[in-house]
Amino acid sequence: MDENHIYQYSLVNALMAGVVDSGLSVQDLLSKGNQGIGTFAHMRGELLMLDGEVHQLLAEGKTRVADESDQIPYAVVTQFVAQETIEVQLKSKDSIEKVLDGFNKHSANVFMTYRFQGNFRTLKCRTVKGQEYDGQPLSEVGKNQHVQDYENIEGTIVGFRSPEIWQGFFVAGEHMHFLSADKTVGGHILELGDAKGTIGVATSTNVHIELPSSQKFNETKLALDNTGIRAVEG
Ligand SMILES: [Zn+2]
């Protein structure tokens, strides 16, 4: 992939509909970029790709490096090259918005990607535990998520900001996953407090979307559930 192009496999709408049985292999996903986020088959945990490794962030604060053959039903990745890198202090999750708004290539209508590395005074992450039955939608899977609080933890955020108009294809607004510096814990970020570190930011105007060719994807009636996405991915 060219630098700062975005590659996405499947759609958030498909995740919401529970179309998560199979997908792209980790090996194929690694050829698409150097950082990204997503989930695993049957929504067993959160995915974070960082510099040639795909990490599976599991409930109860465990992680593993994914096998090349693991199936990824949804992921968004980019060949990230920061266009600007600055030192920042983030009071809360919303502070990311202000940092991105201050980036001189910012526009509400293009994608933004970023990587933050630093220390978090407080951090709240969730990990989905996985489907309890075939086809269980994300809105239900999310109700049984594992939530973990951390204090004074070092680590990395991989994040994407997608324009509002793309809701349902992507997660509109911020979508961030975290991996600790020692790579032992991580998850989808719900809240953060008083983080200090370095953020690299880039805009992206090239988006490549690959849709699943599975029978399940073809047969599922996809719909936009704006409220549901905000509840589970906010
Ligand atoms: Zn997530």
UniProtKB/TrEMBL annotation:
<dbReference type="GO" id="GO:0045151">
    <property type="term" value="P:acetoin biosynthetic process"/>
</dbReference>
<keyword id="KW-0456">Lyase</keyword>
<dbReference type="InterPro" id="IPR005128">
    <property type="entry name" value="Acetolactate_a_deCO2ase"/>
</dbReference>
<comment type="pathway">
    <text>Polyol metabolism; (R,R)-butane-2,3-diol biosynthesis; (R,R)-butane-2,3-diol from pyruvate: step 2/3.</text>
</comment>
<comment type="similarity">
    <text>Belongs to the alpha-acetolactate decarboxylase family.</text>
</comment>
<dbReference type="GO" id="GO:0047605">
    <property type="term" value="F:acetolactate decarboxylase activity"/>
</dbReference>
<dbReference type="Pfam" id="PF03306">
    <property type="entry name" value="AAL_decarboxy"/>
</dbReference>
<keyword id="KW-0005">Acetoin biosynthesis</keyword>
<keyword id="KW-0210">Decarboxylase</keyword>
<protein>
    <recommendedName>
        <fullName>Alpha-acetolactate decarboxylase</fullName>
        <ecNumber>4.1.1.5</ecNumber>
    </recommendedName>
</protein>
